[in-house]
Amino acid sequence: MSYCLGIDIGSAYSKGVLMDDRELRASYYCLSGGDFRLTADKIKKELLSQADITSKDISRTVATGYGSKMVAFADKEITDISCHSKAISTLFPSVKTIVDFGDLYSKVFLIDGKGNLLNFLLSGKCAGGSARVLKVMAKVLQVNIENLGDLSFKAKKDIEFNTGCAVFAESEVISRVAEGFAKEDLLAAIHKALSAQCYSLAERLGIERDFALTGGGARNKGLIKAMGDLAGMDVHVPDAPHMTAALGAAILADEALKRLEVRGQNFFVDK
Amino acid sequence: MNDKKVKGLSKVENYYQHYGLRAGELNKEGEKVIGYICSFVPVEIITAAGCIPFRIKGDVHEPITKGDNLMETIVCPLVRSYFDLCLKGRYDFLSGIVIPHACDSMVRGYSAWNYSLDLPYSYFLNIPSVVKESSFEFFNAELNNYRRGLERFVGKEISDDDIAGAIRLHNNNREKAKALYEFTKPEVPLISGTELRKVLAVGLSLPISESNQLFDEVLTEIKERKASPGKKGPRILIDGACIDNYSIMEIVEGLEADVVTDTVCTGTRDYWPEADTGIDPIDALAIRYLDKINCPKTYRENRPGTFEGDIADRFGDIGARAEEFNVDGAILLVYKFCDPFGFEVPARKAYYESVGIPLLCLESEYSAGTIGQLKTRIQAFLEMIG
């Protein structure tokens, strides 16, 4: 047994994946909260209890995400960009272009067939263009965030919606509500605006087939459809897109472990 | 505080943490300190006048407050920071100030500097933005105006010999700076990028003779070094305008990479070009400041006539430096609302691509709180090229 742990401390949610020799053993996510150290400990404890093992059984831990340096027990820190790339290329080997809808930023990156990062771009420093916009809108329109996508499919009217900035977008939506527009129509417009913004980011980098979406925002069906429409191609989305970076971290931990093992056991061969 | 026993890098650290300390002391002793911003102020003439040229430095940790009343936020944050610090009395030892016509923020802001600081000496240096034959004629005359203005301020004549002498001292300083850069050339650099840039920044806050002495001390100290602070990681070139806060270097070097060279103003842009000797000293300064300093504020004619030829002409020095320092990648840091650099980003990107140097473009707001956000991008870039 060689258990590997991947922990992704994001700005909104934190996620953990436990693997045993590429076999998924446990996964867990929770709100990141105000103390990333405690959150990391909590995730580790939860994963250990799910798999019924102890801390000693874990051979290697890789931390990623905005708060990765707060994971005191990690052996290595790797950016979420590299972790997403690794996980997506493992799940969908044909993918070359990835859009990650995070809470803090949206990111676009190009990878080669082996999951190596070739180039990347991030949305602006504010939350404009990030999946947080959806969270803000769900709150303004008092809709459950899980239902945003489905509701947007029920739109009847096209509304022009221009603002990219999360804060200004909130006030734009409120003014549209005051003008009497329906929730569904507004949601469709917001999805369209957000996806257009992220798609143009991807275009700046040059989109190559195949195309995948990841990150918490990729749980939203409306966004997946809007991105697919813009790209004119099918998009690959992992079953649990919010867990992708944690999964990639666990895979990278596993790969590093195997390299270490090879070095230890076949010392002369490796030389 | 000017303890004779404190030497080399310890002295640098002290003067860096208390930027302007020495200039303040000298002012109390009766010396005249002339503040300037940007690489385009011929400091040699200030030295020749018997004054101390002092490069005004911004502060990313000081929120811009007072300055905002007189300069709107469309002015670049670096110039606003300089101005804000001056208004708040950070550099209250200045007897005068020189602002060059380098970018719009400086031209349009000059009147605000002039009336709000109300210093005994204040000069706006009219340096042309285009390099053509007529520009040299014009700038030569302007340099003499600048010289006459300083003569009136100090009450004595500034002779050609005075200027030639100052040119020798400043050239000497630039040679020593280049010798410091040599220490970053080994596979594991002997001086860290952060250390080097602090030395270079402090060098611009001292009388030239003291700056030369300090550089000598640092050269000796580094030569005797047993342990190297270098990382043997990816070798990075920092490209951009005036980067006078070193958080960005610290982030890069904290991620196991080495900042080995740069194009920035308090780095090679200021320290690389020397003024010619053996010709008329005013001509030598006109050539150095108009043509030898490579900054996007200067428009140069597209001599080759093609886009590819033009970018090779304008940015060739970047590629040459990258080769000299065996660079693995470059980070371009552009300040928000910095017009000269902002306009040039696409052409710069194309140049980097043409010479095959990986490039990361970052936008900065010149505020300590926003620098950390650049870390994710830098880390991913280093993972990509590493």
Report a brief summary of the structure.
By secondary structure, chain A is α/β, with parallel strands linked by helices.
Molecular structure report:
- The complex is a heterodimer of chains A (271) and B (386).
- With 271 residues, chain A is of the alpha/beta class.
- Chain A has two domains: 3-77 and 243-270, Nucleotidyltransferase, domain 5 (2-Layer Sandwich), CATH 3.30.420.40; 93-238, ATPase, nucleotide binding domain (Nucleotidyltransferase, domain 5), CATH 3.30.420.
- Chain A is 43% helix and 21% strand.
- In chain A, strands 3-2-1-4-5 form a five-stranded mixed β-sheet.
- In chain A, helix 2 (80-91) crosses helix 8 (244-265) and helix 6 packs across helix 7.
- Chain A is globular, with a radius of gyration of 20 Å.
- Chain B is α/β, with parallel strands linked by helices and 386 residues long.
- Chain B has a domain at 8-163: Rossmann fold (3-Layer(aba) Sandwich).
- Helices cover 52% and strands 11% of the residues of chain B.
- Chain B contains 16 helices and eight strands.
- Chain B has helices at residues 8-17, 21-28, 43-48, 77-87, 104-117, 133-154, 160-182, 193-203, 208-223, 247-254, 265-271, 281-292, 307-324, 339-355, 368-371, 374-385; strands spanning 33-36, 52-55, 94-100, 121-125, 235-240, 258-262, 329-335, 359-364.
- In chain B, strands 2-1-3-4 form a four-stranded parallel β-sheet. Chain B has a four-stranded parallel β-sheet with strand order 6-5-7-8, sandwiched between helices.
- In chain B, strand 5 (235-240), helix 10 and strand 6 form a beta-alpha-beta unit.
- In chain B, helix 4 packs parallel to helix 5 (104-117).
- The radius of gyration of chain B is 20 Å and the shape is globular.
- The termini of chain B are far apart.
- The chains are: A alpha/beta (271), B alpha/beta (386).
- Chain A binds chain B through residues 66, 78-82, 105, 117-120, 122, 125, and chain B through 363, 365, 370, 373, 376-377, 379-381, 383-384.
